[in-house]
Write a structure and sequence with these properties.
Blueprint (H helix, E strand, L loop, with lengths): L2 H13 L6 H8 L3 H14 L5 E6 L2 E6 L1 H7 L10 H13 L2 E2 H8 L3 H10 L3 E6 L2 E6 L1 H7 L3 H29 L1
Antiparallel strand pairs: 1-2, 3-5, 4-5
Helix pairs in contact: 1-2, 1-3, 2-3, 5-7
Length: 179
Amino acid sequence: MTEKSKKLVEAALFLSQNPISAKSLAQIAGVAEKEAEKLVDELKTEYADRGIEIIQTPLGWQIHVKTELIGKVSHLSPYSDLSEGVLKTLALVVYKHPATQSYLVKMQGNKVYNYIKKLEARGMIKTQKKGRTKEVYVTQEFENYFGTTLDEIKKRVEEQIAEIKAKQAKSKKADVDVE
């Protein structure tokens, strides 16, 4: 293992918006998979006293801001690594928590199946079979990503929905007054 290999692993983790598997890291660094895993472990140790950490997800490793710090810096990132559709799916899951997959499909269409796969791969949600559908739950990784609790996020979502409904009601009232 060379220092260059370690730097390549670190650079790959830093640049990637998605988790990277041991196989991919090994290819990038030009080492065996076991050696890539050792390099990740070394980096994890080096990051122990820093503001970031390397976490393992079902798809591989990813660099993350430490949970205890995310609340102070999260405003700097608009969660650009999650598409609008994925964020809408998450909002619906939070609002209904747990949401059924059939409800999500009804609200967003068949593209929801891909959003669910992406979110499960990142470890942000989990699904559990329930009859002919699945129930969708957020995980601790979801809370880590957003730097706050499910209850706090649900409260914000409900406030946003209340504001939208109030604006819609005002708009309808204004339409009636015009007639």
